[in-house]
DNA sequence: GCCACCGGTGGC
DNA sequence: GCCACCGGTGGC
C-alpha cells in the first residue's frame, strides 16, 4: 500500500523501535493514532475487507482534526495490509537498523524464545504441543514494513561510515 | 532488485 | 556464554 490511501502505518522515532501506531481513514485520509500494537494489529488483520474509518475510533469522526500528520518530523514505515494478528502470548517486534536501511522482525514466544523466521516458528511449534493445537505457522508473518525514505532526515540518511 | 532467512560476532 | 545486531546470499 504505497499509494498513500487506505494504508495503515506505524511510526518510528529516532530510536530503533516503533512508538506510535497509526492508521489512515479510508474516507477522509486523516491519520488516527491507535493506542496499542494489539489494536493496531486487529485493524490491520482485516484491513483490505474492512477498511479503517475515523468513526471506528470512539468519539471521533472525519470532522475532527487528524491525530498526526505524515511528514518528516518522524520516520514512517508502512505495513502491508492483512498481516496476521500475533497469537496470544507471543510478541511481534520490529527493530530499525541504525542506518535505516532495513528493519528486522522477530517474535518472542511465551517462554522467552526468540523466533527469527517461519522456519524457526515451525520448529518451535513442532516441539511445543501446547501451542501446536491452536497456533499455526500462518499466524506469523515476518513481512517487513516499507521504510518511507522521504521521512528520513537528510543528515541521517546520508550518513557515511 | 528485493527480501526472507540465517550465520557470525562484538560487546556485555 | 549469550544475544542484539549486522552482513551476505539464495531464491524468487
From TrEMBL:
Extract the PROSITE patterns matched here. Answer: MBD, ZF_CW
SMART domains referenced in this protein's UniProt entry, alphabetically: MBD
Spell out the GO cellular component terms annotated for this protein, sorted alphabetically and separated by semicolons: nucleus
Q: Which domain of life is it from?
A: Eukaryota
What start-end ranges are recorded for coiled-coil regions in this protein? none
- Record keywords: DNA-binding, Metal-binding, Nucleus, Transcription, Transcription regulation, Zinc, Zinc-finger
Q: Where is it located? A: Nucleus
Residue intervals of the CW-type domain? 15-70
| PANTHER family, sorted | METHYL-CPG BINDING PROTEIN, MBD (PTHR12396), METHYL-CPG-BINDING DOMAIN-CONTAINING PROTEIN 1-RELATED (PTHR12396:SF10)
Q: What is this protein called?
A: Methyl-CpG-binding domain-containing protein 4
Amino acid at each position: 500500500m504505497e499509494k498513500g490511501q487506505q494504508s495503515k502505518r506505524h511510526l518510528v522515532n529516532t530510536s530503533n523501535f516503533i512508538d506510535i501506531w497509526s492508521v489512515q481513514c479510508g474516507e477522509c485520509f486523516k491519520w488516527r493514532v491507535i493506542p496499542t500494537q494489539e489494536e493496531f494489529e486487529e485493524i490491520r488483520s482485516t484491513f483490505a475487507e474492512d477498511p479503517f474509518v475515523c468513526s471506528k475510533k470512539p468519539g471521533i469522526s472525519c470532522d475532527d482534526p487528524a491525530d498526526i500528520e505524515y511528514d518528516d518530523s518522524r520516520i514512517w514505515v508502512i505495513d502491508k495490509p492483512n498481516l496476521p494478528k500475533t497469537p496470544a502470548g507471543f510478541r511481534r517486534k520490529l527493530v530499525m537498523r541504525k542506518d535505516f536501511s532495513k528493519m528486522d522482525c522477530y517474535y518472542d514466544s511465551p517462554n522467552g524464545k526468540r523466533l527469527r523466521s517461519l522456519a524457526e516458528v515451525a520448529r518451535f511449534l513442532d516441539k511445543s504441543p501446547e501451542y501446536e493445537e491452536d497456533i499455526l505457522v500462518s499466524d506469523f508473518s515476518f513481512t517487513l514494513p516499507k521504510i518511507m525514505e522521504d521521512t528520513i532526515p537528510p543528515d541521517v540518511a546520508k550518513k557515511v561510515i
